[in-house]
Design brief:
alpha+beta
Length: about 200
């Protein structure tokens, strides 16, 4: 059976994946967790020891864990850059390709007026959040909606079409899918202050 990719091709693709991960400011463990694998499994892809990286479904899964696309991986292979190469260095867990408005260094405060997120945070708690910083899984987040409302939720995951969070009227176990087009801003909660 003929091989369609050489060891050097697999290694170069793994190096491109590693470059995208570093650009996003993620460790191998964080990227692996997002993709549903161990850091060692992720490391094998980056080291070029798993030739399955050439499969489109594998590329979609791994680049989605980096909030990227297989096209960004192809750009790295072609010329060592991605669509984010001209952006400033990452300041936290964020997805520059899908980052929402906000300054990475700015923080805002918001006081909760209900118990939708109890026991994580109850009415009266003041949340400090960083607009524009993408949250990691199980981190609090503030969603600024196109209709002018603001939602405080626990971030679960996201893809190209929706952001999936927990919280709201159904409590912390209720999952909510929000179309990306309905969101104008996202901020990661960085502190909770009891009043």
């Amino acid at each position: 059976m003929a091989r369609f990719e050489s060891d050097s091709d697999v290694r170069r693709l793994g190096e491109a994946l590693a470059a995208l991960r570093r650009e996003r400011g993620l460790s191998q463990a964080e990227a692996g967790q997002r993709a549903g694998m161990t850091s060692q499994g992720w490391g094998l892809y980056e080291a070029g020891k798993r030739p399955g990286l050439f499969r489109p479904d594998t590329q979609r899964r791994l680049t989605a864990a980096l909030d990227g696309t297989p096209e960004a991986l192809a750009l790295w292979l072609a010329d060592g850059t991605s669509e984010y190469a001209s952006a400033p260095p990452a300041t936290g867990l964020e997805a520059r390709g899908r980052v929402f408005s906000g300054k990475a260094d700015a923080t805002c405060q918001l006081q909760l007026s209900n118990d939708d997120l109890a026991p994580w945070a109850a009415s009266g708690v003041v949340l400090e959040y960083a607009p524009g910083r993408w949250p990691r899984r199980d981190q609090g987040c503030v969603l600024e909606m196109r209709d002018g409302t603001v939602r405080v939720r626990i971030y679960e995951r996201a893809d190209d079409a929706v952001v999936i969070v927990r919280g709201g009227a159904g409590g912390l176990t209720a999952e909510e899918e929000t179309p990306r087009e309905d969101i104008v801003g996202v901020g990661a909660v960085i502190a909770r202050h009891d009043q």
